[in-house]
Amino acid sequence: MMNRKRSVTALWKEFLREVVGPSVGVECAEYYRRVADWALLHGRDFGAGVMERSGLSVLARLDVRLYLSAQPGVAPGMELSRLSAFVPKTLEGMAEALGNTLREMVTVWSPKDCPNCGGPMRTLVALSARKRRIFLSCRDCSHEEWLDGSPVTARVDGRIFPARVNEEGELV
Ligand SMILES: [Zn+2]
């Protein structure tokens, strides 16, 4: 176990040294690409299940030119101090931190707050074989609802993507 714990720490330090440290002066889109590329490069270290649960399997493959938020909640210049304060104990925890970092940069926040806890809600798209459907997902609790306010009772099969905002300001 000691060994495994040390290897997670070593991998995290490698990420900070190779990706986060050299990204202080870059723009968000470039930082996104670097984090995403590194995550994909280490996809086999994390394993398919962890890549899926952390959201990395989708987030790391997004075209950031289409998805970058107008107000990305991440500033590359602050990332080294933010992420250095975090010490992941497992590969899963590390993948979650990477997934959350990418997610912050592509989130379209709904103007509506969560009716359950008052937290902010992300606008997401559920893709299934038949259709794509926009829903809102609370950042702070498990509440999810469709755009008409009805609850998402069963998690949709298929994949979940961040929503985008087109030039007319419409959700796509
Ligand atoms: Zn909530």
Q: Your description of this structure?
A:
The chain is 44% helix and 16% strand. By secondary structure, the chain is of the alpha+beta class. Strands 1, 2, 3, 4 and 5 form a five-stranded antiparallel beta sheet that branches. Strand 2 and strand 3 (132-138) form a beta hairpin. Helix 2 runs antiparallel to helix 8. The longest helix has 19 residues, at 2-20. The mean pLDDT is 91. Zinc ion (ZN) binds next to loops.
Keywords:
binds zinc ion, 5 strands, 2 domains, 172 residues, alpha+beta
Distinct small molecules bound, one entry per kind: zinc ion
Number of strands: 5
Secondary structural class: alpha+beta
H-E order: HHHHHHHHEEEEE
Question: Which strand-content bin applies to the residues?
Answer: 15-25%
Q: Regarding quaternary structure, how should these chains be classified?
A: single chain
Helical percentage: 40-55%
Average pLDDT figure = 91
Sketch the major β-sheet: 5 strands, antiparallel
As for the number of domains, it is 2
Rg from alpha-carbon coordinates: 17 Å
Unreliable stretches? none
Number of contiguous helices: 8
Distance between the termini: 46 Å
Shape: globular
